[in-house]
Structures are given as structure tokens and as C-alpha cells.
Amino acid sequence: MLEVKDLNVSIAGTPILRNASLEMAGGKTFGLIGRNGAGKTTFMRSVMGLLPATSGTIRINGQDVAAQPPHLRAAMGVGYMPEDRRLVSEFTVEENILLPVKALGKTFDPARLDWIYELLPEIARFSARKALALSGGQQKLVALGRALIVGDQLLLLDEPFEGVAPALAQRLVEVIGALRQSGMSVLLSESDSVHSAGLLDGLYMIERGDITLREDIGAA
């Protein structure tokens, strides 16, 4: 599903990712664990094409997309939930969720939205509310719904549990667990694996832009 090999990325001339490699099969949930500043967000944004790679390959379902524009990922069924949510504050919840579909010029599938609302009934209840009026935790759920509207193959979740109340963190664990059971491929990043340990099929550690595979998932 996702294969990244020898990825090098620099920001403002400073190397951030150094020959970073990661591989995950379809239908699996993997964690990318590292402290703040280790390169997790840079890795996610690079996979999504939002940061250019100096060198290396990024293959999604066997297709190298390293030099392709960001919107190609969404067209390939890849959904992305950024750490900072990046909702359009003046748009309603539903408008934010549907934004990737409209950006791609795709035909809207009401059944997909109904499925998201069934999975996340919390956001269905305030679908007509402006994103500006939501709490940070509620915005996290909306950002997840937006990722799911196009992400029917692979989800990249950047720090999904950061800054949310314990009850919402547990709710996110339940939702991600349901996605895992449905056969969705999920890569999520965290500073530690406290929340996600029971969800993971595999675990990568990132430190100073270098990624290593951990065999002992519970030790992170």
C-alpha cells in the first residue's frame, strides 16, 4: 500500500528527513512514533506531496508519486488529517468534509457521507454548524471525516490524539479500531504509543529524520 524508500527532505536548506524508509501492507495500521521535532509531520506532508523531496521514492499502490502534485493522492484514495486540522473556519462542518471532493471535481456520493456520519455521529449532530464554533476536539473529528470522504484506501493521521481530552482520545481509538477492522490502511503518528498500542500491526520510530522499524510494539 505504502512504500517510502531513502526519502530526503529539507526545509529552508536544513535537512529534516535523512534516507527515511517505511513500508506498510494494505489493510494494516502502523504507528510512526517520535518526539516533537523528530520529523513526523514532515514525513506525512512529504508523502502527501505538500513538501518536495530532495531524493527518494514514495510509492502508493506501486505508483511512484514523489514528483506528482498533491491532489493526485486524494484521487488515489488517500486521506490526510493534519495535526493542526486546517479547517475553513467560515465553512460548515459538512462543507469542510466535502471540500476534497469538490476540489477534485468528483461526483458527490451521498452514501459515503452517510457512512462517515454513521461512524462519527458526533459530527452529524452539528453538520450545519460553522467550524469556527467548534471545540478543538470536535474539529479533530471533522478533520477525520474530511480525510475519510476521499480516503477509502489509505489514511495518514498526524498526531490524532494530541491536545484532546481523554474521553475524546478514547473515542478516536474506537473509531480508528473500527477502520482497522474494516480493512482500511492507516498510518498514524504520535509522540508515544500510549493511545495506539492496541491498534498497531507495526511500529516505526523516527529520530532526527531517521526511521527505524521496531519489532517490540509495546516498548515505545
Automatic annotation (TrEMBL):
Residues 2-220 form the ABC transporter domain. SMART domains: AAA. Keywords: Amino-acid transport, ATP-binding, Nucleotide-binding, Transport. The keyword Protein biosynthesis does not apply. InterPro entries: AAA+_ATPase, ABC_transporter-like_ATP-bd, ABC_transporter-like_CS, BCAA_Transport_ATP-bd_LivF, P-loop_NTPase. One of its GO terms (biological process) is L-amino acid transport. GO terms for molecular function: ATP binding; ATP hydrolysis activity; branched-chain amino acid transmembrane transporter activity. Gene3D superfamilies: P-loop containing nucleotide triphosphate hydrolases (3.40.50.300). Belongs to the ABC transporter superfamily. This is ABC transporter ATP-binding protein.
